[in-house]
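Protocol step 4 of 6: record predicted structures for both targets in the notebook before any analysis. Target 1:
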Amino acid sequence: MDFVVLGGGGWGTAIARLLARKGHRTSLWVRDPELARQLSAERENKKYLPEVELPESLEILSDLAQASGRGEAFLLAVPSFATRGLARQLAAIFSRRTSPLCLINLAKGIEQGSGKTMSEILREELGPRPIFTLSGPCHAEEVGRDFPTTVVIAGEDLELGRKLQEALMTERFRVYLSDDLKGVEYGGTVKNIIALAAGISDGLGYGDNAKGALIARGLVEMVRLAIRLGARKETLFGLSGLGDLVTTCTSRHSRNRLVGYRLGRGESLQQILNEMEMVAEGVYATDAVRQLARKLGVEMPITEAVYAILYEGARPLNKLTELMTREPKMETL
């Protein structure tokens, strides 16, 4: 298959490298022309994925219209807050050419304000067409170095999904298939919020007991919200839910855990974000998920605590105390 990867961050670069190395005709679109020139010349994304060599067969482009004429399948590897804007640009371009076979979202988040998932945004802007989301525990730093990784691709067209599954799989990158698009997308969103909480706990100097509890109760919040929105419970106990949750809460590569850690150490959110090159999706997801949960009447106390720390200036230690001293309850989902 012919693939176009849209977005030159670490994850976009890693997945484009994987596809090109497997032998697919692959183009990587990068918004910044200077970064595109650097990638083409040096065959390395020093800014977002250093010390990972890019194959010569990988085409690097900064012209979106040119890139859009290349592929059958488009993988959107931009942050969630940039997805709608990119989709609108693509809609104008696709109206003048044959539409691609499918779109694959790689972002893990929902839209602030509307609470819509990335697949819902893509349908709104680009009309009815096959849309998939690829998710799971898949840090770019490891995929780019061919460390064993297992993910899930979810969509409604399972026949096409099987073709994509086969196209993406390598001996170091295993892909499962799901038709529970909602479950995969909400799992990938909520896990970033819980990773912020896990990082805050680390920053406060607490240990494995606290982190284990945050992961377990964070999974409860994930399941509650996703089921309320029509997902299947079993999906949240899979790769895009529990698998990604554990990885993001514990990994040294996790940007969300790092943001939480620095918050727990007493740094301000603005200072942290000003110093980051890449996006911590959980910062945006916390606001969007909290709004959605309140609208639906879904209880999510960890999410509420993280929101208070991020957006209301609450002290992390105070919010932890509030979580620990809530009224006693039965352990249920």
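Target 2:
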Amino acid sequence: MKRASIAVFLALIPTTVWAANQTFDLNTLIPAGSASASGRIIQLIAALTVLSVAPGLLVTVTSFTRFSIALSFLRSGLGLQSTPANLVMISLALFMTFYVMHPTFEESWNAGLKPLLENKISEQEAMDHMIKPFRSFMVANVRDKDIRLFEDLTTGKAAASAAPAEPELHVLIPAFMISELRRGFEIGFLIVLPFLVIDLIISIVTMSMGMMMLPPTTISLPLKVLFFVLMDGWHLLVGSLVRSYPG
């Protein structure tokens, strides 16, 4: 038995020596190109980092902010704290964003990402082509006043009366976000206003009838829901939000 074990051990020695002499070349796992293996690894890490912040980019450079704020005001105006559920509201805002941003996404894909995957352009050129459609979208929907604000904060002095034709991204993105927040609150006020009127009317009627112990929301909630359904509120609201963007 011992002789058999020794024989097996001696037979495995050449295989072990051969495996030890083999070198592992990382370049064989990396696609051929101008970059080295370490460069490709850095590019991979950068791509994973971009994917990790993709939700933040979706909020900052698209129409998602305006849609989510308007839908939140709608639920507050109706007096429904958990209906529709957050998942439903966020999903609706997300797919409305995809609908509005579809031309921008398609242009960014065709001009930047697709040629990069086909090795027709460099990474820098692809990045410039991918950013350009989003820049055009933000410039078309941002207020010049907001751009001048961040220009003033950047330079430390009052900027020109007219905003630059091609503002830098570090100026354009926060200006676009506060413009979207302002527009979202304006739309939200218009959404809440008719529901507020219904609440006031119901409160006055219940108090005049001496029903002091009856909460007005007990009567106003079903009336507001009925009012919203009869006027086809979802159709009007979604259509108005989508049409609020030019083009």
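Step 5 preliminary note on target 2. The chain has ten helices and no strands. Residues 7-13, 15-22 have pLDDT under 50 and may be disordered.
Proceed to step 6 after PI sign-off.
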